[in-house]
Amino acid sequence: IMATPVYAQQKAFDLAAPDDLVATGFLKHLLPRFSLKTGIRITVVGEQGDATFGAEGTPVFRQGETIWHFKAASGPHTDAFLDWLQSDVGINTIEGFKSEGGSLFSGDVSVREETQVAELTGDLALGEKQSLAKCGRCHVVNDTNRMNAIGSTPSFALMRNFPDWQSRFETFFLLKPHGAFTQVANVTDPFPDHLPSPIAPIEVTMNQIEAITAYVGSIAPADLGAPIQSRNQ
Q: d(Cα 34, Cα 100) in Å, to the nearest integer?
């Protein structure tokens, strides 16, 4: 009696993917490159696959604002595919896809947080007046005091380029060197007797700070020009 030959387990699995993802042509770019690298064949099916691209599982690539996830029961072939998707080679393959329809993909699956900016409700006219009176001896507030400020301190227009400009102005009295010479009514403690203000102190209220911040928000950020480029680029 002849023994029945034992065939090696086929290196393959079925992958369920939504029609809108399939329609981009992305999978025709992605899957053959993985198969060529590993010898594992992946067949795309509409549903009920061994693995799935969808909204659940491990995030593996981004399409615009949509993050696609890979979900599968643990197994040598699906695990190998997930590892490849998260590798440098896999990410480069994902980002190497080009589509005439503009459906570009990225390996960046980090969650993008929207920065919440508080509404500025202060009095702009009061803010300009207080900015010139309280800040103008050091900072260029606008053209009115351009020749009277200290050149080594940043102008208001320049500081408008800072990502955290609003919080800087709202809490400027906590930042060096302002705390040494600034008094905020009903907020800061009086200067200690042994540490008086080194210059004429600035006395300000929270209402005035709110107005100053609102005024700064109305200033166009300074044009810092294009980044410097090396001649070798």
A: 23
Number of domains in the chain: 2
- Decide: residue 16, CB within 10 A, 0-12 exposed, 13-18 middle, 19+ buried: middle
Residue 149 sits at the vertex; the CA angle it makes with 148 and 154, to the nearest 5 degrees, is 155
Is residue 93 located within the same domain as residue 170?
Answer: no
Q: Which domain holds residue 154?
A: 124-217
Query: Torsion angle of alpha carbons 142, 144, 149, 151, nearest 10°?
Result: 60
Asked whether 13 and 50 are in contact (CB, 8 A), the reply is yes
Task: List, as one string, the DSSP characters of 137-180.
Answer: TTS--SGGGTTTS-TTSPPHHHHTTSTTHHHHHHTGGGSTTGGG
User: Do 144 and 201 fall into the same domain?
Assistant: yes
pTM for this model (two decimals)? 0.48
> Which residues have a Cβ under 8 Å from the Cβ of 56 and sit 6 or more positions away?
69, 71
pLDDT digits (tens, 9 = 90+) for 76-106: 999 999 999 999 999 999 999 987 666 689 9
Considering the domain architecture, whether residues 76 and 148 belong to the same structural domain is answered as: no
